[in-house]
Amino acid sequence: MTSFDPTIPQTAAPDVEFISLSHLNPSTELNPVPSRGIDLPYFRKYVQSLEDGGYDYTLLPYGSGSADSFVTASAVGALTERIKPIVALRPNTTLPTVGAQKLATLDQLTEGRAVVHLISGGSDVEQARQGDYLPKNKRYARTSEYIDILRRSWTEPAPFDHDGEFYKFDGFGPGFAPYESPIPISIGGQSDEAFEIGGAKADIFSFWGEPLDDLRSEIDRVHGIARAAGRTTLPRIWVTFRPIIAKTDELAWQKAHEYVAKVAETHRKAPRLGGAAPQNVGSQRALNFADRSELYDRALWTKTAAVTNAAGASTALVGSPETVAAAILDYVDRGASLVSIRGYDTLTDAIDYGKYVLPLVRQEIAHRKATGQRGTLQADHLGNHGPDYARYATAQS
Asked: Is Oxidoreductase among the key words of this record (predicted)?
C-alpha cells in the first residue's frame, strides 16, 4: 500500500453488523475439554458478553452430535434483549413446513430477531450420520425447494398444496406467521450449486475469510446471478474470520504462533471426519490459499486453516486491534456488510473484540457517514503493507 485514497470505494458496504458464534461450554481448540453438554453458567456469561460487547447476531451451530440449534437460539432470545439468533438448519433434519413454524415461533418470541442459515451439507459422512444419503448436487436442489416452502409458509393467506422433487403435502396453512416480516434466509458454500441458489434466492450469502481480490470476485459472481434472476435487492455478504489480537502487532504474532501450535495438536489428536480430504469446495479453497501463502493483504493468515484441514471457518486476522479493525474495513470496502469474528480463546476473545475491535470499526463507519470520506485508520495501521509485520509473522514463538 503505497498511498491512501480517502475516497470511499464504490463497492463498500455503507454499514456493517457483527456476528459471533455462541459457545455452550468452555472447551476450545486451545484447551479441549471432553464434553457434549451445556455449561449453563458459562453459556449465560458468553451470551451476555455478546450483548455487552455490541454484537448484532450470534450463530447457533448445528452438527449431528451437537446441541439443537432451535433450542439454543430460543435460550439466546430469552437471555438477551438485542442479539439476533441465527439458527443453523439442515433441511434433512426438519420438514420445511415444520421449520417455518419453528422459525416463526422463535421470531415471535424474540420480537423479530430470528434469522436462519441453511446448511445443505458439505460432507457425505456427516450427512449420513442422520440418515441423509442424497448426493451433494441434490442436497442443494432440496435447499432451493426448502426456501420456496419457507417463504410460502410465512406469507400464504390460505392453505396450499405442494408436490415437488423432495417434499409433498396437501392443504398446509396458513402457517404460523413471523413477528412482522419474513425471516432473513442465509446460504453459504462455494460450489456452483451454492452460488446459483444463494444468488437467486438468499437474503444473505456467507463466505469464509479469503484474500480480498478473490472474495470480491466471488461477491461479483453472487450478485451477477442475483441480477440475472431479476432481483433488485442483492444478497448481503457475510464473511467470517478468527482474529488473534494483542496490544501490538508483534505481541499478536507471538500469541498467534502459540495458538497455532496448540490448535494443530488438538486437531492432530482428534481430526475432524477422520482427517480425510474435505469434500466441500470452501475448505478446498481455504487449503489452496494456505498452500499458496501464509499471509495475504493486510492481516489475513492461512496457517490456522492448514493445521485444521480447513475444518470450518479457520482463517485468521492477526494484529493489534487497530490492524485487525483496518483489515475488517478492507473487507467492508469490498462489499461485506456482515462480519463474523470468533476466537480461539472463545469467551476472552469475544469480550476483547467487543472492547477493542468493534468500536474502532464503528467509529470509522460513523466518520464515513458524517464526512463522505474514509478516515485514517487504514492508512495508519498498515499491517502486512508495512515493513515489520512479515518479520513478526515469520518469527518463531
From this structure: yes
